[in-house]
Amino acid sequence: MPSSNQVLIERVIADNCHDSFSILVERHQSDLRYSLRQMTGWDESLADDIAQETFLKAFHAIRTYKADAKFSSWLYRIAYNQMINHFRLARNRELTGLEEALSSNMERPVGGEFLKNQLHQDIAKAMQALPPQQRMVIHLHLHRQLTHNEICKTMEIPLGTVKTLITRGKARLRDLLSNWEDEDVK
Amino acid sequence: MSNLTEIDNIFSNARNTEPYFDDRGFVTRVTLELPTTSKVSVRQESVITIAATIIGCIIVYQYFPVTDLIELIPHQFSITPIDLLVVSSLVSMLSYWAAEE
After folding, report:
1. Which of B30, B80, B94, B95 has the greatest count of CB atoms below 10 A from its CB?
2. Taking the model in full, what pTM does it have?
3. CA dihedral (A54, A60, A62, A63) positive or negative
């Protein structure tokens, strides 16, 4: 029977157990790497770099993890901080990404499997039009389906701010993703 | 259907078709970057510390002239009014400082 996250975390804390931490990474890597692709305009290399930094930070800070929160939410918080640090260091690069995102959103070929992949990338590119904090809030709410209160705790921002960011973010994305409104990619 | 609901549907489609990313060496890359495992675990470290402390105490008890030192402590004190004043002043100052802190 596979060990729970909490058991693995306790082993990491007690014995500095790399194997237990590897299992945690394996469990969460796909979700986190996908989320970071969404946050970075589907820049696979950058997303993976931030994901790797996130897991390393998590390992060093594992003693600060509180079991009353989801481990994945805790990881998202660290990932968000890593992403912000990265954007601070490469602000110009982010602005370039934003321009590319806005200009490349217009054309979209049609076709089954391609549509599925294209949807993820189009969302990621549209998200580039939002500030990083709003991107994360929108992603956690609309994609990861976290409640407003969960986002509040994860992002450490007031409830009112979360609601405002979601409402405004949705309105902004509605314009950018208007091409997808009548598509069904299932 | 409202426009906001349409956005929810777009994200719902994305959620339902979210790809699973194969590891492809990602876990190994992370694991290689982890700080080297300590040869002694935290638990073992605690046991060693406690055992060493106990052994140290026994050695000290055997060889250190504890009883001689205890006998050096005076059994009776005589305190003058001046000493009493100095001591009470010091205690007052210390209490004031502690309260301020």
Report:
1. B30
2. 0.69
3. negative
Q: Is the ipTM of this complex over 0.85?
A: no
**Does one domain contain both A52 and A114?**
no
Of the candidates A59, A119, A181, which has its C-beta nearest B34's C-beta? A59
**CA-based end-to-end distance of chain B:** 64
Claim to verify: residue A19 and residue A38 sit in the same structural domain? yes
Q: Is B11 on the interface with A (CB under 8 A)?
A: yes
State the nearest Cα–Cα gap between B55 and chain A, in angstroms. Answer: 25
Segment B21-39, tens digit of pLDDT: 998 899 999 999 998 766 6
Task: Report the distance separating Cα A59 and Cα B31, nearest Å.
Answer: 10
Does A152 share its domain with A110? yes
| Confidence band of A161 (pLDDT split at 50, 70, 90) | very high
> Residue A11's domain spans which residues?
5-91
Same domain, A124 and A55: no
Q: Smallest Cβ distance to A56: which of B21, B26, B33?
A: B33
